[in-house]
Amino acid sequence: MFVLGIDPGLTRCGYGVVSRNGRHLEAVAAGVLRTDPAAELAARLAEVHREIVALVSEYEPDEVAVERVLFQVNVQTAMQTGQASGVAMAAAAAAGCPVTLYSPNEVKSAVAGWGGADKDQVEQMVRGQLGLTKPLRPVDAADAIAVALCHLAMLPPARRVAKAGTR
Amino acid sequence: MFVLGIDPGLTRCGYGVVSRNGRHLEAVAAGVLRTDPAAELAARLAEVHREIVALVSEYEPDEVAVERVLFQVNVQTAMQTGQASGVAMAAAAAAGCPVTLYSPNEVKSAVAGWGGADKDQVEQMVRGQLGLTKPLRPVDAADAIAVALCHLAMLPPARRVAKAGTR
Questions:
Q1: Catalytic residue ranges of B
Q2: Region B15-36: what's the mean pLDDT?
Q3: Could you give the ipTM of this predicted complex?
């Protein structure tokens, strides 16, 4: 099965597509969607929507996992990140993909074994699971793959098995 | 010119289309988009997006005005409202409509004369400007029309004149 993981953001939105065939995990695609911070908010959100529609159309993920946006110090940034995650969720759901949200701690726990893991530890564990020797860059893409791996780890076996037969 | 005003919300999203021809203001459409609180967040956001796409396609507004989402007591609600506004903005921008945000205080000041006006006062002033004798219901629709009227009041004259000729 294919899972599209999204690390939402308005200026930088990470994405990663992970396929699983039995025990074999593979990163099919990973990257960062960028929008121009100087452009208007609505236009930037429309761009994120268009890009996620294109990703879902290209990779046809079975499921989509999105990192939940928490309120940090900067409320304005949190709102814009939340809006970017909202348009990404809307694009995925409109294409018929089930969408699941995970908190940053859930992602770190699932991938690195504990919720306090830093970005480097997460990136190393992601590489380990995927058998990659080179660093995963940019870091937003590694985070997005971690979200996809988290979803694969959290899925009930029945759902994994049922879906796995389709690819 | 036609302005689509949006009072964003996930469970209830108010909309109102106001046309202005010279000094004549008219409410062309007003209503509330509802999504099922029991449905999944991504599906609800996709529905808001689909409905706004349909509204923009039907009424072809020249501009879209959206009430800015502020952080209230309930952070979770503020985030979901912000996400609903995000997908609405994305849908409008994708259709080529300029999108402008106004704070609740800006809307109240423009329509009722002061930022502390309550919902009833705003609704009465909206009716007065549109020459309506019956109450505007539901209240989310009246709020959305207020956002559209605020935008018409705030637009620079040159932009109003230039656009007015097209309708």
A1: 7, 67, 140
A2: 94
A3: 0.87
Cross-chain Cβ contact A41/B79 below 8 Å: no
- Give the total residue count for chain A: 167
User: Which CATH architecture is the domain A2-164 placed in?
Assistant: 2-Layer Sandwich (3.30)
Q: Which parts of A70-118 fold into alpha helices (H)? A: 75-94, 104-112
Helices A75-94 and A41-59: angle between axes, nearest 10 degrees: 40
Is residue A27 within 8 Å of residue A133, measured between CB atoms? no
Distance from C-alpha of B99 to C-alpha of B3, rounded to nearest angstrom: 10
- Show residues of chain A in contact with B67, CB under 8 Å: none
Mean pLDDT value of segment B31-38? 97
Rounded CA-CA distance B167/B2 in Å is 8
Q: Other C-beta atoms within 10 Å of B39: how many? A: 12
The reply to whether residue A46 touches residue B89, judged by beta carbons under 8 angstroms, is: yes
Nearest CA in chain B to A87: B87
Across the interface, of B45, B78, B101, the residue whose CB is closest to A86 is B45
Neighbour-count burial for B45-65, b at 16+ CB within 10 Å, e otherwise: bbbbbbbbbebbeebebbbbb
Exposed (0-12), middle (13-18) or buried (19+): which is A21, by Cβ within 10 Å? exposed
Q: Give me the half-sphere count of Cα atoms (radius 13 Å) on the Cβ side of residue B23.
A: 1
Give the domain ranges of chain B. 2-164
Q: How many residues does chain B have?
A: 167
The phi-psi region of residue A60 (left if phi > 0; otherwise alpha if psi is between -120 and 50; otherwise beta) is left
B33 at A interface, C-beta within 8 A:
no
Model pTM above 0.95: no
Give me the pLDDT at residue A167, please.
57
Name the A residues in 70-89 with CB < 8 Å from any B CB. Answer: 71, 75, 78-79, 82-87, 89
Say what the pLDDT of residue B23 is: 84
